[in-house]
Structures are given as structure tokens and as C-alpha cells.
Amino acid sequence: MPTLCLNSSVPSCRVKGWALSIQCGSRLGLTAITTSLSRPQVLRACGRVALIFFTLISALLAPAITSAATEPTPSQSPSPNTSQQTSIDLELRQLLKNTIEESDSFEDQFDAEVWLVSKQEPMRKFIKDPQQRMLLLRKIHRAATLAGLRPEIVLALIEVESHFNQFAISRVGAQGMMQIMPFWKHEIGHPEDNLTDIDTNLKYGCTILKHYLNKTDGRLMDALARYNGSYGKYWYPRRVMNAWEKHWR
Questions:
Q1: For residue 45, what are the β-bridge partners?
Q2: Comparing C-alpha atoms, which of 222, 176, 224 is closest to residue 202?
Q3: Rounded distance between C-alpha atoms, residue 45 and residue 36, angstroms
Q4: Rounded CA gap, 244 and 159, in Å?
Q5: Dihedrals φ, ψ of 13, to 5°?
Q6: Please, what is the angle between helix 151-162 and helix 109-123, to 10°?
Q7: CATH 1.10.530 matches 88-248
Q8: Is 4 helix (H, G, I), strand (E, B) or coil?
Q9: Whole-angstrom Cα distance, residue 177 to residue 134?
Q10: Going by DSSP bridges, is the β-strand pair 18-21/3-4 parallel, antiparallel, or unpaired?
Q11: Domain spans, the chain
Q12: Which range, of 47-56, 76-85, 150-159, 208-217, averages the lowest pLDDT?
């Protein structure tokens, strides 16, 4: 029988009637070829060996490949928060639309949209609920505008005074978001006013700040110091202006 000898030191295996010696080790190599076969016959024999080899490998790897293909990847698995996030975004968009249309202290709806969109993001740190956030921004803009103040300064002042806590009460008794002292209610003859009501608190606070701004000929730092009761010192005005610079300008 014709023989293809790959390595005389290892046993032969028969493929389709041909006796083939396959070198065992880390790689398949031909060390010597002594055969009476023609070149095409040798190539066909090698092709049969290769076919058997790859068939065996495919059979061994098929279960692993099938398992890997059916296992969901991170990009295929839907995020559990995707539908919730989409719902929140749609709700926020509708809320923003309603708030803009109801805002009566802006010159037009475009101004309302620009201002509300730019301020709702920093406000998110203090007010988590989108509806409450938009409502509060609209109230602050209206109160500040009616008093002749820049709404951004009022936002910064409220951040320093109460962090937008409607029910904040200081150790000296100041109440609400803009920390109004209760004696003002008696000064103006409205002892029944609730200073933790947002609209009432904003009306008091913006009126007081505007009064001090007029009294100081428009010098905002002096007006803020008077508002805090620390006239002549500027640590409080600097805190307000730092908040304005960081979040509200």
C-alpha cells in the first residue's frame, strides 16, 4: 500500500485506505515525505485530514457558540429605566409647555422658554419634583419682576437663605424661603399673613429687597447687606453673588 510518512516514530492512521502518520505535539508539521503518490493524491489526502479536523473542532465548539449567541449582551438588554425615563421626559415637556403658556411675567413665550429651561436644571438640586420646580420658578420670576428685581438675584438670595425650603425657620425666627422676620407682618398691619406661603413670602422678600436697593441708590451689595441686617459687612452679599455666579447668572 502506498504510504505518506510524516514521522516514522508515531503510529499510522488510516483515512480512506491510506496509511498516514501524523506528528503529535504542539504543531502539525511535515518532517519527511517519502511516497509514491502523485502530488494531486497527496493534496487530496491532506484535504481529507483537514476536513476531519475542522469537523471535529466544529462539533466541539458548537454548544459554546450557540450559548454565547443566545445570551443577551448589555446593549441588547433593555434598561429597566428606559420606559420610565421616556415617561418623565414627556411629562416634563408637557409641564414646561403649560408653564410657559401660563407665565404672565415674561415679554413673550420665547423669553419664558429660554429662562425656564436654563433655570430648571440648577433648581433640580433643590426641588426634585418637575411640576413643583416649574411652578416655583414661575412664581419667583413673577414676584421679582413685579418688584423690579432681577429674578436671578432673587434665586441666589433664596439659595443662601433657605435652599428653597418653604418651611425654613431660622434660630432668630425668620420664616420661609426668603427668611422674613415676623415683625414685618405687624408693621404693615397684616398679622394674619402666613410667611411660609410661597407667594406671600416672595412678595414680602422682593418688596423688602427692592426697598433697600432704592435706599442704597441701586448698590446691590449694600442692599443685600441691609437685607441680611449686616450693613457695612460684605460676607453675606458675597455669598449671594457667589451663588448667582455658580448657578443662576
A1: none
A2: 176
A3: 13
A4: 9
A5: -120, 150
A6: 20
A7: yes
A8: strand
A9: 16
A10: parallel
A11: 3-70, 88-248
A12: 76-85
Beta strand 18-21 with 12-15 is antiparallel
pLDDT digits (tens, 9 = 90+) for 115-152: 988 999 999 999 999 999 999 999 999 999 989 999 99
Residue-level pLDDT at 50: 54
What is each CA distance from 3 to 51, 78, 95, in whole angstroms? Answer: 20, 60, 86
Name 169's bridge partners.
175
pTM of the model: 0.60
What is the number of residues in the chain? 249
Cβ proximity of 180 and 204 under 8 Å: yes
Cell of 46: 491532506
- Max CA distance (Å), the chain: 124
Residue 101, judged by CB atoms within 10 A of its CB (0-12, 13-18, 19+), counts as exposed
Q: Burial code of 14-46, b = ≥16 C-beta within 10 A, e = fewer?
A: ebeebebbbeeeeeeeeeeeeeeeeeeeeeebe
Query: 126 burial class (0-12, 13-18, 19+ CB within 10 angstroms)?
Result: middle
Give the DSSP H or E segment for 202: helix 198-215
